[in-house]
Specification:
Chain lengths: 285, 252
């Protein structure tokens, strides 16, 4: 498998009044043309890992890595201007909540067309045509009507699909999806996943899928990294998630109520302080 | 006697051409000491039913009966002693400038309790928070601890019925397990009746005995948890919802 992204020993640090806080501590992984899941609880550093790849960590945050390469190009050495060519065009990111990620005073179609025009040299009419095709590709019925709507006029699920359309229109090599479905209803969630799944299979895109939902990740992704306190504690084939060895992963799995396997009391996760200090496991293949 | 009986409940918002019927002809009943779940997608009207029972809107018609008494549009203090609600977002439902002690003592004094000091200690202990939390402010608590405070506040007037509106959806799974265990312990100890709203069928399945599935303001099906687990559903919609919550299946 071709390596699209190669990250080695990534750290994200924030200086605070009480010393430096390490949000991500020595994470390594590679991404090919696959669906890679990153799972963890709030504060485990999974979103920070995604943002660090796009160099979206604002000052005074510090990002360091031994290696962070996109197709062999060093992302950390790039200038801000070069980085703007990477963001959106080669690596794009879908945020959690469409309500806060779309421009509220611009028609959604124009926002999608704008994304296309920024990255290619085309006329407005062509960009509109392309935007309409893209809306159709993300399973929006009646794209003409939706094109002229404002973000407050669309539902959450539709908003999320519009975000995906906008992120896909420059045809990126890698997509980072940060909890793309957690604000959505289950049935819409499945639709959104199907769209992303199709893109990985048909276009050979690499997908980093950040989520807290273990069941969803194990059924949707190819590989999973499990993060705890800024480190990767375990990496697994997604379909083998239920054979996980690490006590943290086991604890998370056991604390989930299951429809097919009812229990009287749910297991409560006992956190072992030693987990914080274990070495981060490499997710490279 | 039933804990909650609802017959032909309609709730609407707005007038004339702006009118939206949020709940249309809903009927179900929860036995005293029972635990009933309302599931459905966002906008299906499940939270609206809870809010109508609590008297948070006036625009409803039909019959709501709680502990044998038929409710009118006005609720008295005695009603709020018997019925309490826990809200979805523990970050929004606690006053940011009031300490845990203030939150609990206000509820207790409103309901005319005298031994407030002893009761607060007892409540905190019951929800698994030590006395150290008593003088903390919400920003000094984690999400799970806040939800425990919200549960303590709901338990303060010694209610018989708790209405739970997505009590764990803002929490991490490991914290969710703690809160769900706490809720099932409290129900066993205090013989509480639960009416719970959730979009997560696994959570409802863990805590409830019967569920009602809602779609577009209507109850499409009422079924027992055993039937739900065995996928014994009459309606296709219920089955779709169940399958969707089991995870993603690769197609084609």
């Amino acid at each position: 498998m071709t390596k699209l992204l190669d990250v080695e020993n990534l750290w994200v640090k924030f200086p605070t009044r009480n010393g430096i806080f390490d949000a991500v501590r020595g994470v390594s992984f590679t991404l090919g043309q696959e669906r890679l899941g990153i799972v963890g609880e709030s504060g485990s550093g999974k979103s920070m890992t995604g943002r660090a790849i796009l160099r979206l960590i604002r000052k005074p945050g510090i990002v360091t890595a031994d290696k962070m390469e996109l197709d062999g190009q060093d992302l950390l050495a790039m200038s801000e201007k070069e980085m703007r060519k990477v963001r959106g065009q080669r690596i794009s990111m879908i945020m959690q909540d469409p309500k806060f990620s779309l421009n509220p005073v611009m028609r959604v179609g124009q926002q999608i067309a704008e994304a296309y025009m920024l990255h290619t040299n085309t006329s407005k009419a062509q960009a509109k045509q392309k935007a309409l095709e893209m809306l159709d590709a993300v399973a929006i019925r009646d794209p003409e009507r939706v094109y002229n709507m404002f973000p407050h006029e669309v539902s959450g699920g539709m908003g999320q699909r519009i975000m995906i359309a906008m992120m896909l229109i420059p045809d990126p090599e890698i997509m980072i999806a940060d909890e793309p479905t957690s604000a959505l209803d289950v049935s819409v969630q499945i639709q959104v996943l199907e769209i992303m799944d199709k893109l990985v299979r048909e276009r050979g895109m690499g997908l980093i899928f950040i989520s807290h939902d273990l069941n969803l990740v194990s059924s949707f992704c190819d590989r999973v990294l499990i993060m705890y306190a800024g480190r990767v504690v375990e990496t697994l084939q997604a379909d083998k998630l239920h054979d996980a060895k690490h006590p943290y992963t086991r604890g998370l799995l056991n604390s989930l109520p299951r429809i097919d396997n009812p229990v009287e009391r749910l297991e409560v996760l006992e956190r072992d302080p030693a987990w914080r200090d274990e070495a981060s496991i490499s997710g490279a293949i | 006697m039933n804990g909650i009986t609802i017959e032909n409940l309609n709730v609407w918002f707005g007038d004339y051409e702006d009118r939206v019927d949020a709940v249309k002809g809903a009927s179900f009943s929860v036995p005293k000491g029972g635990s009933f779940g309302l599931v459905g997608e966002s906008g299906s009207g499940k939270s609206t039913i809870l809010r109508a029972i609590m008297g948070l809107f006036d625009t409803w018609s039909g019959k709501i009966e709680v502990l044998g008494e038929t409710l009118t549009h006005k609720r008295d203090r005695e009603f709020y002693r018997k019925v309490q609600m826990v809200f979805q977002d523990p970050y929004a439902s606690l006053h940011p400038r009031q300490s845990v002690d203030q939150v609990l003592s206000e509820t207790l004094s409103l309901h005319g309790f005298k031994d407030i000091d002893a009761r607060i200690s007892k409540l905190l202990e019951d929800v698994g928070l030590g006395p150290a939390f008593r003088f903390r402010y919400p920003h000094q608590l984690s999400g799970g601890q806040r939800q425990r405070v919200a549960i303590a506040r709901a338990l303060a007037p010694e209610p018989e019925i708790l209405l739970l509106d997505e009590p764990t959806s803002a929490l991490d799974v490991s914290v969710q397990a703690e809160i769900l265990n706490l809720l099932s312990d409290l129900r066993a100890e205090r013989k509480l009746t639960y009416l719970m709203v959730s979009h997560d069928l696994a959570v409802v399945g863990h805590l409830c005995h019967d569920i009602a599935v809602m779609q577009l303001g209507k109850i499409v099906e009422v079924l027992s948890i055993e039937d739900m687990r065995a996928l014994q559903t009459r309606e296709d919609y219920t089955r779709t919802l169940l399958q969707a919550s089991m995870g993603y299946e690769l197609r084609g």
